[in-house]
Design a protein that fits this description.
five-stranded parallel sheet; Rossmann fold; globular; SH3 type barrels; four-stranded parallel sheet; binds N-carbamoyl-L-aspartate; 360 residues; alpha/beta
């Protein structure tokens, strides 16, 4: 069975199969209108979402399938204290595929470990958001035409922004991708992203403080919202929330071929005047999200039927269970009764198998 928990679960070929299928769906929508007839998608959303949940729902409906689930954990048995593992065991008796969003990091992974059907991570805490990444990749494909040899500027909340972490992981599969990280010091990208993704893959990257100094080199400017809900200290949020505002004056510094992406929702980091600039691709990106989720659902259901990866272990065989604790309070091994586990990273340090943080 194949799940999508992290962008690293997909090879370059698999990414391209999904993106190509999404392009085919866009070109021949009617051909796909019944391919998931009789199938059910469960959307288990423990954290607020508009676009992602509705995009999954619309995607399954356009494939001719049905959708069940919850958008508010308080209305489910979770409020009675049910674990992610138990909820998954129950739901996988009803549904053919599950999309889970959770505020706890590693929750969709634990779900996959307990599921009889494919599980898709629809966003786990500050960790990962692979279907947004597929959305971003389809957008880059349609707007720029290639994934190799591009310069991508990530701007804003690179610390808590899971969409940033996931897109960089996927881009690490490609040649000659240059990454420019634009953020205030307190919102810098987590260390594991540098040590485990950027550096071992030989990706050229640099950290800068202002948008102005890099605008002219970018093919893609990936803007992000400062993730208020992830801050422990709201004063800190207040200090950085307006750090970057993309407006028409700054857009003048960008090249005509540059594209602006944003996973949305936007707060104030892009002024509305930018929306009319043809380089603003973020509303086109939303629609791409539905097409790429159609492709993903269809492919995962097909792979499940074909028995793709029947023996591939989800937990690495050399997992280290003893002697360390994960120090991330938002990791599922600290919020539910699941055994801590660590794997060796490229730089030989240990990483939690659920949230990728380095243990104590
Ligand atoms: C993003 C998310 O949930 O991480 N939104 C989305 O899925 N479209 C970005 C965000 O919330 O800022």
């Amino acid at each position: 069975m194949k799940h999508l928990i992290d962008p690293h679960d997909l090879s370059r070929k698999e990414i391209e199969d999904i993106v190509d299928l999404a392009l085919d769906i866009i070109a021949h929508r009617e051909m796909y209108s019944e391919v998931c007839k009789g199938k059910k998608l469960a959307t288990l959303f423990y954290e607020p979402s508009t676009r992602t949940r509705l995009s999954f729902t619309a995607a399954m409906m356009e494939l001719g399938g049905n959708v069940l689930g919850f958008s508010d954990a308080q209305s489910s048995s979770v409020s009675k204290g049910e674990t992610v593992a138990d909820t998954t065991k129950v739901i996988s008796c009803f549904a053919d595929i599950i999309a889970m969003r959770h505020y706890v990091e590693g929750a969709p992974f634990v779900s996959a470990l307990n599921s009889r059907v494919p599980v898709i991570n629809a966003g786990d805490g500050s960790h990962s958001h692979p279907t947004q990444t597929l959305t971003d990749l389809l957008t880059i494909k349609r707007e720029i035409g290639r994934f190799d040899h591009i310069t991508v500027g990530f701007c804003g909340d690179l610390r808590y922004g899971r969409t940033v972490h996931s897109l960089i992981k996927a881009l690490s599969r490609y040649e000659g991708v240059k990454v420019v990280l634009i953020s205030p010091d307190v919102l810098r990208i987590p260390d594991y992203m540098k040590k485990d993704v950027l550096e071992p893959n030989g990706m050229e990257y640099r950290e800068v403080n202002t948008l102005e100094e890099v605008m002219s080199e970018l093919d893609v400017l990936y803007m992000t919202r400062v993730q208020k809900e992830r801050f422990d200290d709201l004063d800190e949020y207040e200090r950085v929330k307006d750090a970057y505002i993309l407006d028409a004056a700054k857009m003048k510094l960008g090249r005509p071929e540059m594209r602006v992406l944003h996973p949305l929702p936007r707060v104030n980091e892009i002024t509305v005047e930018v929306d009319d600039d043809p380089r603003a691709a973020y509303f086109r990106q939303v629609e791409n999200g539905k097409f790429v989720r159609m492709a993903l659902i269809y492919i995962l259901l097909r792979w499940a039927e074909e028995g793709k990866n029947p023996d591939e272990p989800l937990v690495p065989e050399d997992v280290i269970r003893e002697g360390h604790t994960c120090n991330n309070p938002k990791c599922i091994c600290n919020t539910e009764n699941v055994p801590a586990g660590f794997r060796k990273a490229a730089d030989d340090t240990l990483r939690c198998i659920y949230c990728e943080h380095q243990p104590d």
